[in-house]
Amino acid sequence: MVQRRIRTAALFAGAAALGMLLAGCSAPGANKGANATDSSGPIKIAIVDAQSGQLSSLGDWEAKGAKMAFDEQNAAGGIDGRKIVYTVYDDQGDPTTSTNLANKLASDGNIAMIGTAESADSLAMAPIMAQNKIPMITSGQSPKLGELHNSFVFLNSPSSTAYDETLAKYLVNDKGYTSIAMISNNGAYGAGERDAFKASLKDLSVSPAADQVVTPDQKDFSSALTQIRGKNPKVLFIGAEEVETGLIVKQARQLGIDAVIAGGAPAGTPVYVKTAGIDNAEGTIVSTPYLGNDTNDQTKKFAADYKAKYNETGELHGAKAYDGAKILIQALQNSKVATGQALSDAIRAVKYDGLVGHFDFDENGIGVHETQIGEIDQDGNLVAANG
After folding, report:
1. Alpha-carbon Rg of the chain, whole angstroms?
2. b/e map 99-119, b = 16+ CB within 10 Å
3. Is 307 helix (H, G, I), strand (E, B) or coil?
4. Burial environment of residue 207 by CB neighbours within 10 A (0 to 12, 13 to 18, 19 or more)
5. In angstroms, how far is the first alpha carbon of the chain from the final one?
6. Within 10 A of 182 (CB to CB), how many other CB atoms are there?
7. Where does residue 168 rank: exposed (0-12), middle (13-18), buried (19+ CB within 10 A)?
8. What is the distance of C-alpha 311 from the center of its chain?
9. Residues 249-299: pLDDT tens digits?
10. Cβ contacts of 142 within 8 Å, gap of 6 or more
């Protein structure tokens, strides 16, 4: 797997460039399919998320959230009498696969895309989606997505900058911690977390006690954690996805590191708690825009509907995708099912009070700009932090 990741990273730029060249063989937007010109047929939307591989739990949550919103709209009559037809594409959490899918979903006649959940995959797809003039509403949160200044890319959650500014201020200003070690992976998500949290600490005049970097598919963290243990930090910040974060915490505790664990959205998920173990995960501080299903009437309804549809408990990632799909639906309604740049402009114009916050897209396509602080309780649930 490590070798595959390394090979993937090496091929990333070339694959993206090849994808752009392939897309460039036809006029921009020319391959949006018959759907784009048929004003009476179904509206074709792509849902792109990992349905296999290590990140499949994340992709499953995301796809279910989006599907629920589209199914609700279809049950209510669709959009101007037209049904939404969605197709779920499995990107396997792999940027090269995502690059290939970007071309396929355009040729399949999709006019918009929800996904993918992974920053690296979203970054790989973004130039091809722009070439084909297909808006994408992604759950990736790397600041690099906003730095693309791509008018077809929208985030359905805050970027890592918002997550980590809130987290750093809570740890330093509210709790008084200054001895903070960091461990992050060098994937798109982990690197974004590392950069954002480190910058936030610098703004607070705090230097990390340690700053260890691992790879996304690494399983043994003993070397990095031994270095961290030598610094005896009070807090261990982790910038990695759900499973890896859980493995790091489990191994940190085994090495005798008793620091408070802190992180972004992955550290608030059931997959993280299960991987780390409840005893190890208890007390984890989490920066998140979604603190739970009982926050207000809107989250309660989402959770109840999600439970009824899937017999599962709703959570952040499904909520993000649900919000993204609802925003797309509103844009389609407002624009009378526009396509291309007109649909992108319609998405940007949507103001929406969603499950993860108030959406008001800025020039970088970021819609939500604030998070809250939660913690993992003794039962493994994410709840509002106490003070």
Report:
1. 20
2. bbbbbebbebbbbbbbbbbbb
3. helix
4. exposed
5. 41
6. 23
7. buried
8. 23
9. 999 999 999 999 999 999 999 899 999 999 999 999 999 999 989 989 999
10. 119, 120, 122, 123, 159, 160, 188, 189, 191, 192
- The pTM is what? 0.84
Region for residue 298 given its phi and psi (left: phi exceeds 0; alpha: psi -120 to 50; beta: otherwise): alpha
User: pLDDT tens digit string along 299-317?
Assistant: 999 999 999 999 999 999 9
Angstrom distance (rounded) from CA 59 to CA 62:
5
Judging by beta carbons within 10 Å of its beta carbon (0-12, 13-18, 19+), is residue 10 exposed, middle or buried?
A: exposed
CA distance 286 to 257: 19
Q: How far apart are CA 95 and CA 119, in angstroms?
A: 9
Amino acid at site 191: A
Taking the CA atoms of residue 224, residue 183, residue 56 and residue 370 in that order, the dihedral angle to the nearest 10 degrees is 170
Q: Which range among 13-17, 208-212, 222-226 shows the weakest confidence by mean pLDDT? A: 13-17
Region 183-192: mean pLDDT is 93
How many angstroms separate the CA atoms of 368 and 307, rounded? 26
HSE-up (13 A, CA, CB side) for residue 185: 24
Question: Given the structure tokens 């629920």, which residue do they identify?
Answer: 68
Q: What would the DSSP string read from start to end of 241-267?
A: -HHHHHHHHHHHHHTT--PEEEESGGG
